[in-house]
Amino acid sequence: MKNNYCVIMAGGVGSRFWPFSTNNRPKQFLDFFGTGKSLLRMTFERFRDVVPVENVYVVTNAAYKDTVKGQLPELSDNQVLLEPMRRNTAPCIAYATYKIRETNAEANIIVVPSDHLITNETEYVRVVKEGLRFVSLNDSILTLGMKPTRPETGYGYIQIGTGGGELRKVKTFTEKPNAEMAKIFYESGEFYWNSGMFLWRADVVVKAFESLLPDVAEKFEAGREYYNTEREQAFIDRIYPLCPNISIDYGIMEKASNVYVMMSDFGWSDLGTWSSLYDLSAKDWDGNAVLKCNAGLYGCQNNIIALPKGKFAVIDGLEGYLVAEEGDVLLICKKDDEAKIRQFVKDAGERYGDKYI
Amino acid sequence: MKNNYCVIMAGGVGSRFWPFSTNNRPKQFLDFFGTGKSLLRMTFERFRDVVPVENVYVVTNAAYKDTVKGQLPELSDNQVLLEPMRRNTAPCIAYATYKIRETNAEANIIVVPSDHLITNETEYVRVVKEGLRFVSLNDSILTLGMKPTRPETGYGYIQIGTGGGELRKVKTFTEKPNAEMAKIFYESGEFYWNSGMFLWRADVVVKAFESLLPDVAEKFEAGREYYNTEREQAFIDRIYPLCPNISIDYGIMEKASNVYVMMSDFGWSDLGTWSSLYDLSAKDWDGNAVLKCNAGLYGCQNNIIALPKGKFAVIDGLEGYLVAEEGDVLLICKKDDEAKIRQFVKDAGERYGDKYI
């Protein structure tokens, strides 16, 4: 276990859960389910029995430093990596990998988003342990593919190839499909959802960066004398702006030849939309999901109601709506019109500046 | 002017504006329009040029004493009359009248509710002055009839009789009519809305109580030695429970023979329902009335949105709804389904006790 490392990516902003999430309060820092724990905290605790606490690293935006340290007081300053700006996942992962390699050249690393939901933690832990064992023994990149439960068009898919058991060679990564294609993928049994979780050894991923993203590799290689020193942040602040804005999927996964997928099924959602949250939530007989608050619902079907704890909503005659309140903002809209939320946020920003977003 | 007195009835509870109004925060004490003044305060200030401030009396429930004194710091303790319990308008008016008569036997009194809206204050003041002049010269009871602007079924009507100018003998008082009858009333030009505002001399109304509600008269007559003394409250607390629960309309107005009506037109609403508030409010081009808060409305028609000041609502695709929030309660329902609000309040009380009502 001492060679196991975890990198939690917690730099996202994202307005899809507005007004629940805002620029100052991105999704990963929210107590989504009223359990008293943020998604980040839940992600962190999942590795309790897999990775020593001193081997857990969080990469976040410099602006969220205090939030991360507040939610994960177990971490030292050296374990909270601060991006001076957003540069997508490839630079983020390169930073963490190069830094960890300086500490432990034999590190087995799992990289995970900080804002996903996993419902079967026992199975998740089993899969992750098995995956870390696999990458410790093989010069391979491993990704976790989620067994699809519906023909979802909101996720990318991974086509599985040859191999035995739950571990397969990846045949191809696909973009988010249209509805027709999603149905074919779903029914084929050959396609798994791309969860954005990756496992590899530090030396393997460094080699992948060197061959597939050499200009990124070069930049982070130049920092070997700075990692884990007081000069690390200044170094990062200097090279980060020069990094390309590129995802690990596009930069590495889709191009590397040694990529494997573990066919997993541990109850996963990226909590990408209010609808996905609705799908996951307990509902009353009329299909209403009430989160955190109390509600008296009359003639209401298939709504999702999310008000702050202690609030009481009385709603009569709504069907298929989202009613969400946080801070000074109340949002009422059709719960499937989520593309609109981005517009609402944009409009609010134009009218009121940063006040409500 | 020194003989002019005003009695403001401020003892109402009422759940029709829930969650805006609650048991602890009845409508008259609310800053309805976000102007910084409660309806009670607005009512009080309307008499600025008609009644000396020391001649203004407020009758309220003992539970609201501090609220009244807080909103009307100009009043002395002797001007805030406390009912130990609700007993409708006849005992309330008898109390104030008998008390005022002890101070000034020639008092001309106007009795008004504390929770109505008047939009043309100049005309109101003219009407009230004219009315007080009339009752000072005549042994008559005068009521203010509102020129109807629509065939409203939510108000009682007064049929006007003989007389000249704006002052007429009352032919009959009617209950709230059905829609068909309201249309006939409205089109006839002979029917005015009963506003619940009365003007009379103290001695005239005492005589009316003596002949029409003798058991009420007897009780308050017995207090002559207590009014305006330290023993007044104990006396009231003793006799109030013994009073019948009866309205001044039923007990006096409908039965007295010397009742006149002043045909008035000063922009009046009893603010009895969310719909009446909607009718009075400024609306956008799509018929949405937004009170106090900010709102971004998309595909919304004919809604009334009332959130606390500083709140921001984004609403998409609602038509004809009420969205109201106050304290810990959010209410969303069809704005014309107001009878239901009483049910919502009742249900909330059964589930959560007094917490939300």
UniProtKB/TrEMBL annotation, chains A, B:
Catalytic activity: alpha-D-mannose 1-phosphate + GTP + H(+) = GDP-alpha-D-mannose + diphosphate
Name of protein: mannose-1-phosphate guanylyltransferase
InterPro entries recorded: GMPP_N (IPR049577), Mannose-6P_isomerase_type2 (IPR051161), NTP_transferase_dom (IPR005835), Nucleotide-diphossugar_trans (IPR029044)
CDD domains in the cross-refs: GDP-M1P_Guanylyltransferase (cd02509)
Enzyme category, top tier: transferase
Family: Belongs to the mannose-6-phosphate isomerase type 2 family.
EC number: 2.7.7.13
Annotated organism of origin: Candidatus Aphodosoma intestinipullorum
GO biological process, one term: GDP-mannose biosynthetic process
A Pfam family: NTP_transferase
Chain ranges of the Nucleotidyl transferase domain: 7-284
Keywords: GTP-binding, Nucleotide-binding, Nucleotidyltransferase, Transferase
One GO molecular-function entry: GTP binding
Organism classification: Bacteria, Pseudomonadati, Bacteroidota, Bacteroidia, Bacteroidales
